[in-house]
């Protein structure tokens, strides 16, 4: 294992895939000699050249369309969307073409492509900071991945770049400067496998992307108060690892779903419903952004999105709501 | 969504393109599919959603594809195929296949951003892409002059340095000549080309859409029927006589009878096939 920054893990995964498969090409804004908006493509332009590492105009619709068409035409393209907010401009080729291509052509055409987009609040305001994960989970034909560690960024991106159909790979601005352990040997992480980041008997807290990091902080605070939280990092938003989630909540009986995006029709809403169909007697709660746009002001941004304190509070409220568990909590 | 009035465009394009040249089109796909070589029976099956269609009935008119004959597909979103076609052209360029990707779109797409974004990238990257605007004069009910500000649609390509030409799309010989010139230039590596094919939509937008054009105007459309125009020319040139015409009609009728038989015998898909290949 080596310790790499999250952005370095991405660059390594891409470099390995480009070296093993000449069909892989990259397209996006500032990914060439500039080295990527988050330095996550540094060195790739120099190593693989301008034909395979292509700077695009500021035009997400054509960028995603190019990727979809290039995929249908026999390449394995990866389109970079600097802020996931801008993926709205590219949703037509992604949703109306790529996600449906295998189905509508009865398997004769496919779109093995990756859209890599960066989500998350970090001071850039209403249209550079959103989390839109459930929009994408809603689309049949899309695989949606959202790692929170450098190791997962590496292993999941490699899997995405070999996947048979379109994958949206969503990372987070606050993850790029974080370090983590990445295996030295090539290692792929399958889609649809969540990771238990911390074991605990009292409550299961489910998160993804940067909220996994925040949730682990919250779990420490809860532990100080005598509450042992099991923290599950989804990693794959679609397909969902129902087995790992169900195993955990069967033991804890309580599930709190944390996400940085909106609660309405959110990741938590889907997971809570799906788990209640699978596990009886489960008590659930969700915590997401308040119903307001993300602000450029750090004070307003922080108020709008979950933090460790709010996660602790939500966990405590959920446990307090459950009479059978109340005595345990008070112990 | 029939292709009446637009047959010469589809036939002319498909006459020039090699089978290995990917062709994409708009949702007005029936004429294009036939011209490209999709069997009439399979096409009918696809149109009504039967398993015998090239896409097993899943795609219908708006999304029909048959890569084995070079039809990379129709797209029901106006302008939706343009950037996809550019991507397919990029794949051909990168793989060095020498193929020219061709995308047919309607005049309705000329007001859409996708055309402008596609022209821009195609020009910058010198993509082997032939963009053909099938200008039938109307986007459903909106005349092209009320939906697109430039009077000459070829002007749309000018700022990008993409050579454009306006062609009489009711004259199949003119279509063949213009497409052949453009394809040759693109194959030589000269980058994208833009062609406008002027024609008249002989019917209403679709069988479900009422005809809003005045009856007198519709009456005069016959003058622009590419089938009649070509028939007259072939007769004038002495290539076609009554016997030849009758033989062609018989061939067509036989093909239609076969297609009707095929589609009648074709099975409906198993309902569970609705969740396959997702």
Q: What's the oligomerization state? A: heterodimer
Number of domains of chain A: 2
The CATH homologous superfamily of chain B is named: Thiamin diphosphate (ThDP)-binding fold, Pyr/PP domains
Most extensive protein-chain contact, per-chain counts: A-B, 36 and 41 residues
* SSE sequence of chain A, one letter per element: EHEHEHEHEHEHEEEEHEEHEHEHHH
Tell me which CATH architecture of chain B applies here: 3-Layer(aba) Sandwich
User: Could you state the CATH homologous superfamily of the largest domain in chain A?
Assistant: Thiamin diphosphate (ThDP)-binding fold, Pyr/PP domains
Based on CA atoms alone, the radius of gyration of chain A comes out at: 20 Å
Gap between N and C termini of chain B, in Å? 27 Å
- Sequence of strands across the biggest β-sheet of chain B: 2-1-3-4-8-7
Care to count the β-strands of chain A? 14
Question: Separation of termini of chain A?
Answer: 41 Å
- Write down the overall geometry of chain B: globular
Q: How is the topology of this model organized?
A:
The complex is a heterodimer of chains A (331) and B (278).
Chain A: E1 2-5, H1 6-20, E2 24-28, H2 44-48, E3 53-55, H3 60-72, E4 76-81, H4 91-104, E5 114-119, H5 133-137, E6 143-145, H6 150-160, E7 167-172, E8 179-182, E9 195-198, E10 203-207, H7 210-224, E11 229-233, E12 236-238, H8 242-252, E13 254-262, H9 267-278, E14 283-289, H10 298-304, H11 308-321, H12 323-330
Parallel strand pairs in A: 2-3, 2-4, 4-5, 5-7, 6-7, 10-11, 10-13, 13-14
Antiparallel strand pairs in A: 1-8, 6-12, 9-11
Helix pairs in contact in A: 1-6, 3-4, 7-11
Chain B: H1 7-16, E1 23-25, H2 30-36, H3 40-48, H4 60-63, E2 71-74, H5 80-95, E3 101-106, H6 113-124, E4 129-135, E5 138-139, E6 142-143, H7 144-147, E7 164-168, H8 172-187, E8 193-198, H9 215-219, H10 226-236, H11 242-265
Parallel strand pairs in B: 1-2, 1-3, 3-4, 4-8, 7-8
Antiparallel strand pairs in B: 5-6
Helix pairs in contact in B: 1-2, 1-8, 3-11, 5-6
């Amino acid at each position: 294992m080596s310790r790499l920054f999250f952005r370095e893990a991405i660059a390594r995964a891409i470099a390995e895939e480009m070296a093993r498969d000449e069909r892989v090409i990259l397209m996006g804004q500032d990914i060439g000699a500039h080295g990527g908006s988050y330095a996550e493509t540094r060195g790739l332009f120099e190593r693989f050249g301008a034909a395979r590492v292509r700077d695009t105009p500021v035009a997400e619709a054509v960028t995603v369309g190019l990727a979809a068409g290039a995929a249908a035409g026999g390449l394995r393209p990866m389109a970079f969307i600097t802020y996931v907010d801008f993926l709205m401009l590219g949703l037509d080729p992604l949703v109306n073409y790529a996600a449906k291509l295998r189905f509508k052509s009865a398997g004769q055409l496919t779109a093995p492509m990756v859209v890599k987009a960066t989500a998350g609040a970090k001071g850039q305001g209403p249209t550079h900071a959103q989390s839109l994960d459930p929009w994408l989970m809603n689309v049949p034909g899309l695989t949606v991945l959202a790692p929170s560690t450098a190791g997962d960024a590496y292993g999941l991106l490699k899997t995405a770049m070999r996947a048979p159909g379109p994958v949206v790979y969503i990372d987070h601005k606050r993850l790029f400067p974080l370090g983590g352990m990445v295996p030295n040997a090539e290692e792929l992480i399958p889609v649809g496998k969540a990771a238990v980041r911390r074991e605990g008997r009292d409550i299961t807290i489910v998160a993804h992307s940067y909220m996994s990091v925040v949730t682990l902080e919250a779990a420490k605070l809860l532990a100080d108060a005598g509450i042992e939280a099991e923290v599950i990092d989804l990693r794959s938003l679609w397909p969902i690892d129902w087995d790992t989630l169900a195993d955990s909540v069967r033991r804890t009986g309580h599930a709190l779903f944390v996400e940085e995006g909106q609660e309405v029709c959110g990741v938590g809403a889907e997971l809570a419903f799906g788990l209640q169909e699978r596990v009886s007697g489960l008590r659930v709660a969700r915590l997401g952004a308040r119903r307001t746009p993300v602000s450029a002001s750090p004070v307003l941004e922080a108020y709008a999105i979950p933090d460790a304190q709010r996660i602790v509070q939500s966990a405590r409220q959920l446990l307090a709501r459950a009479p059978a568990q109340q005595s345990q909590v008070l112990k | 969504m029939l292709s009446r009035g637009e047959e010469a465009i589809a036939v002319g394009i498909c006459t020039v393109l090699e089978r290995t040249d990917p062709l994409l089109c708009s949702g007005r796909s029936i004429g294009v599919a036939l011209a490209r070589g999709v069997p009439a029976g399979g096409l009918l099956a696809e149109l009504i959603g039967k398993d015998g269609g090239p896409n097993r009935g899943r795609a219908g008119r708006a999304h029909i594809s048959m890569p084995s004959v070079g039809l990379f597909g129709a797209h029901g979103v106006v302008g939706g195929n343009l950037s996809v076609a550019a991507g397919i052209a990029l794949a051909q360029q990168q793989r060095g296949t020498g193929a020219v990707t061709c995308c047919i779109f309607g005049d309705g797409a000329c007001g859409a951003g996708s055309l402008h974004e596609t022209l821009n990238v195609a020009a910058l990257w010198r993509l082997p892409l032939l963009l053909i605007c099938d200008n039938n004069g109307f986007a459903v009910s909106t005349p092209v002059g009320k939906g697109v500000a430039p009077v000459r649609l070829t002007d749309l390509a000018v700022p990008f340095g993409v050579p454009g030409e306006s062609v009489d799309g009711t004259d199949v010989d003119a279509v063949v000549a213009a497409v052949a010139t453009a394809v040759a230039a693109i194959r030589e590596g000269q980058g994208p080309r833009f062609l406008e094919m002027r024609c008249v939509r002989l019917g209403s937008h679709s069988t479900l859409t009422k005809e809003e054009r005045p009856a007198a105007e519709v009456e005069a459309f016959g003058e622009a029927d590419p089938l009649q125009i070509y028939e007259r020319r072939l007769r004038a040139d002495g290539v076609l006589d009554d016997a030849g015409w009758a033989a062609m009609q018989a061939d067509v009728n036989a093909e239609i009878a076969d297609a009707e038989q095929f589609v009648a015998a074709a099975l409906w898909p198993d309902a569970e096939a609705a969740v396959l290949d997702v």
